[in-house]
């Protein structure tokens, strides 16, 4: 039994192990109330072995609504929803707490149509609204709000409450502004909540470590707050980053190492005697184990790891392999930021737990029909996901791949700096496929489909160069560079017709090899799709480091020999010649659809249907066998 | 408003075999008024929204576009035809007492939709990525085309069965049918590529068969994609229209493509009535033609109708600003003017903001049944104070307004001096007309500090005034915001007082368009201008209004330097230093003036019984909040 499996006492209650599913936004609320989706989502992580589940924030003030789908915990109508969450999590054997919070000046008036209430009249960067300054009476009203919501949580049968004092929180704002009102307010809140939940439930706080802002809070401030509240709380959770300002610190993308925030729980743990939770992009059981074993924390928070694999905890305790979060942030962070329900690129069932059996990562679910012989054509993420899902249903699956490696576009994309973890998905899917007995044939272009009952076409897409590239050897596609077929050097112009990682990956790869790289896009923002996944800031730092120049608002009209491209600034209509030694183009590829003559069902999935992201490939591959007759 | 214009808008007009009671159409638009528990149905708030326009005299109401197949889910609460029958029925019933014709908006957003909710691919004529999302759609196969045709027909049948007078088929902005018509998006090599109008013709034919001759079939049709190299142009549309004319009763020409979404319902930077000539040229015998495109003024509408340029006018935003538009005209009154800012009504936004209006404040009912008629003093004649005074006067409450300056409108006259914001001057004029008609006095030259409260609750305004007709301590405080001390010249001061000569740097942490407009004006005066902003865009708030891309083009053409992801770190000795907020890299250039476009702040506000502070005096925000809070305060004082 690893250190992760040891039970831990949180005041009046005991968590069965050290793995926590911490609070994070899901956008699963409807009409400001918790839903069956919340219960199913949290329940799945409890069933998957987590020791402690903490719900997403429940607001203590109806006027506090920075995003549409924030639960208004003050409405007594939330109690049945809380009851459903408690029942679902308890059925899985975990404890469940509700996080209570108020966003203060980090909120928006878009939904409330009322002024934002803040600790001062300085606007917060994200929504930029000038707050109305909370009076003493206003703060007292909020203390009552915390108490009221805590009473609803208790009535719903949850095991307790966590007070959000970090990330997006009025309490963080009070502490951060060094307000003398900060600690008295927090202590009043804790007393009100304790009164509401009684001595038999758990009360914790989530304290703010590094804000990532010049002059902002740091680990020592977290220690100070933790010490002050220690007599009133049963545990201390920790955080870094401000949600509306330094979000990449909270939810870092791939490229940021596990345990990057460990110094905060370490410092707090040295100062208080109650259990301390640490967080920080722990995506594998080994990383989680190390966080606890090293003494950095008593419990370890794993959010994205348990989104990607709901059975992360039980697998960690059993020493088994998990399907890893790759830190792509495409379906969790990016979707939630767009008011959409939380999803996951590697686990397509996330967000649909209440309507679908969450069984694809669990043991084989039986096919409803007779087992079929399934041919999957293509070994990229869509094909691998299709093979895994079909094999889990008991079908006999053969996967053919034209090239000599699995992974398709991911195998190439993972060769770029800070994109290595993309290969983890390929490795995990391939491992699952092998375990399930999928027959994998590499270097096998599909010729005939004899002797099968169904075909999944997952043949991906092929590069597509624009018409101006025709006849120029030194105008190449990003995949040519990533695959090593060409090695551009000298003055390289990367033309980004896609706005995702393809252009930035190749630009950085070549710049690090010494090329003089400029990127060019028609969009108003360079590498715009890197912003929602929180990759953009790191990209810009690295681009500056290696001297990549980024140019926006420009399109290539034509290319002449000697390699001069005519570049149009489309906002002004000015055309400028641009000399380069190589031009690398990143643009949407063209679906690769082999013509197959067959009478068995053929299901197209992933890029061969329409070139899109990892999520579409894995989702459609996983669902492919649902389209077989009789399924 | 000249009374003679009334009958022009007010006249009945035949649409096929039905008759609309006026020539004013309320067009389809995204509302986010759905009940979140039934997000794809039309709910009670939709019904109220349309009923109000019918009651106000609209001749035709077109409901929010409903998707005709489930694969189309362009925004989270986009109506789905299969789930709309009850809602259509309720809307039709609500509008029937007024004689207003109700047409169900039907559409399919194609490649301009969203894959976020279906989690499947977008479907479009060809694999051309949408410029907004960048997403490559899947190519609609023949079976999918047949399903779209059937979807339009069955949805139309359902709408008419539910009691609608007909349907409006969407081939305008955000429409698969437009994408099929356009060389920008239809690169097919089958029959639907050889004849790009084939799908539209099939859909309209199927719809007509489904609803019969009695129901109205309308068509919203892009007539100019503003992309002549491959897009739809008016000559192309003329031939299309002649083909489909026998199938439709009503056509609404609109403009814009996926490349120019903002051009379809543009803000005040585009002169109203921009489709008038196109509309006139496209008129077809037997089809009622509707003039759309920023028709917000009654005089323009009446003039187009009188000249025979159109049979009806679409005045969607004008009716958002004043639901009683036609009724007001009938009564010889002036409707509340739409200011064409698009800040509150352009609701196609992933955050699902409920549709609102900068000037109408629909969240607070306008009609008041006042119980208290004790006098009220309104301090400040900006939009918050003016709206409060108007509401009080209409509720029968004695009211007077005191204003520190010699002008009316607060910041609005300054704002109205900026490019694209001119219509705010009309709003001020309208308030002055309204208050004058109600006999509300405005005393200028009286500051809040000059108001003295007397024992017994009376307020003494100025020396020469007697106290007996003044507020008895009941005050709406609408004194506005104050400049926030900072490193540069506050933007309000720059607008008010002008700037010394030399190169200007505007630092804009707000991004709502004020800095953009000031930069444009200064550049227009021949000044060297740079805007420095912390985010990835200059004027990101303009995404909401549809002006974001156009604003960048105007700035670029005017030679304004756009410096993003940066902040000013030093300004001294004729030089500004700016640092990249991510990399820290610093740049300096000569600058004589630094303008701080940061937010203003609220002044200290006294707290006393009977005093309600509103608008920027609470927290500096926009005109919408000022008007909303001004009206709410008036209602509270009269309750």
UniProtKB/TrEMBL annotation, chain A:
<dbReference type="InterPro" id="IPR036188">
    <property type="entry name" value="FAD/NAD-bd_sf"/>
</dbReference>
<keyword id="KW-0479">Metal-binding</keyword>
<feature type="domain" description="NADH:flavin oxidoreductase/NADH oxidase N-terminal">
    <location>
        <begin position="6"/>
        <end position="316"/>
    </location>
</feature>
<protein>
    <submittedName>
        <fullName>FAD-dependent oxidoreductase</fullName>
    </submittedName>
</protein>
<keyword id="KW-0408">Iron</keyword>
<keyword id="KW-0411">Iron-sulfur</keyword>
<dbReference type="InterPro" id="IPR051793">
    <property type="entry name" value="NADH:flavin_oxidoreductase"/>
</dbReference>
<comment type="similarity">
    <text>In the N-terminal section; belongs to the NADH:flavin oxidoreductase/NADH oxidase family.</text>
</comment>
<keyword id="KW-0285">Flavoprotein</keyword>
<dbReference type="InterPro" id="IPR013785">
    <property type="entry name" value="Aldolase_TIM"/>
</dbReference>
<dbReference type="Pfam" id="PF00724">
    <property type="entry name" value="Oxidored_FMN"/>
</dbReference>
<keyword id="KW-0560">Oxidoreductase</keyword>
<keyword id="KW-0288">FMN</keyword>
<dbReference type="Pfam" id="PF12831">
    <property type="entry name" value="FAD_oxidored"/>
</dbReference>
<dbReference type="InterPro" id="IPR001155">
    <property type="entry name" value="OxRdtase_FMN_N"/>
</dbReference>
